Amino acid sequence: MKRVFSGVQPTGNIHLGNYLGALRQFVELQEDHECIYCIVDMHAITVPQEPKELKEHILDVAALYLAVGIDPKKSIVFVQSDVPGHAELSWVLTCSSYTGELSRMTQFKDKSKNKESAPTGLFTYPVLMAADILLYDTDVVPVGNDQKQHIELCRDLAIRVNGKHPNTFVVPDGRFLKSGARIMALDDPTKKMSKSAENIHSRISLLDEPSKIKKSIMKATTDSEGIIRFDVENKPGISNLLNIYSVLSGISIEDLEKKYEGKGYGDFKKDLVEITVDALAPIRARYEEIRNSQMLIDVLKDGAKRADEIAQKTMERVKTNFGLGL
Ligand code: AQP
């Protein structure tokens, strides 16, 4: 069985972009892969976090993992900082990476824009992400399109290290979906939907109340043409909404264009509200059952133990190949 690894940052509640781009794949893959899903809290502290809030968000994301359908009997679910191998391997990989390649990462450029100086962790974030993946001899990494560049860097690092120290790492492949792989912000469809964006109406979180979902969708930026047509370049707003509608309903974009021929954005948005509310209601209900349960803590503790066993084996191999330790 091929091994799958992926993670989500506990930087806020999971939104539709995270769900449609990444988590949907997590659930699907666990049927015929050995899956390891992590809550990457060490990535979250690359920007300032309130400790109490971070703790809560870790449990929120863990509960949402289970609520969307990740089954702890099939998949390992754990918190990144509970397995020391992530930090250890990250340092080893930092020593094999170059400042030039890290400066080209668009996420770093975006997050450090207009700042005279940025946290070093933000700069080395992709190296930690490579460590997360390589620590588990991962074959497949299901992620959204925004992570393509980081996956490429991870592959480059694995190939580079293997060139010098043969058979150290498995070289992983990214897995990107055709539709839903990049959900854009509702208030600015040229930017990706993001947990940490200031405007709460830029995103739909999986735990949003129906009234909030309605408000965010009805306010979503479109254009003045008033025709429901998929054209990302000239009509990014309505194209993004069509994409969300299509993925949630299973109706193709062409069929949606036909269905809404002659109708206005208002009608289209009203239907999208209904579809989104219906899709998220069962997830919210399951989340409420799980969030404060002892079962959730037990799953994370057991997951960390199982993940650590795999991680320790990889670290032994890495240390031997690099000549580290006694
Ligand atoms: N807008 C998106 N469309 C499709 N997929 C997305 N992902 C994120 N945004 C979109 C995918 O979700 C997974 C988890 O992302 P993450 O939490 O690790 O980090 P991120 O990509 O930085 O997500 P956010 O929501 O934008 O968080 P903040 O605001 O904290 O930086 C990844 O697989 C990602 O591709």
Topology:
Layout: E1 3-8, H1 16-29, E2 34-39, H2 41-44, H3 51-68, E3 75-79, H4 85-94, H5 99-103, H6 106-111, H7 120-134, E4 140-142, H8 148-164, E5 173-175, H9 210-219, H10 236-249, H11 253-259, H12 265-290, H13 294-322
Parallel strand pairs: 1-2, 2-3, 4-5
The structure holds adenosine-5'-tetraphosphate (AQP).
Any key phrases for this structure?
mainly alpha; Rossmann fold; Tyrosyl-Transfer RNA Synthetase; 2 domains; 3-stranded parallel beta sheet; 5 strands; 7% strand; binds adenosine-5'-tetraphosphate
Detailed description of the structure:
This protein has two domains: 3-182 and 293-322, 3-Layer(aba) Sandwich (Rossmann fold), CATH 3.40.50.620; 200-287, Tyrosyl-Transfer RNA Synthetase (Orthogonal Bundle). The strands form two sheets. A three-stranded parallel beta sheet has the order 1-2-3. It is globular. It is 54% helix and 7% strand. α4 packs across α7 (120-134), α4 (85-94) runs parallel beside α13 and α7 (120-134) packs across α8. The mean pLDDT is 96. The relative contact order is 0.14. The chain is mainly alpha-helical. Adenosine-5'-tetraphosphate (AQP) binds next to α1.
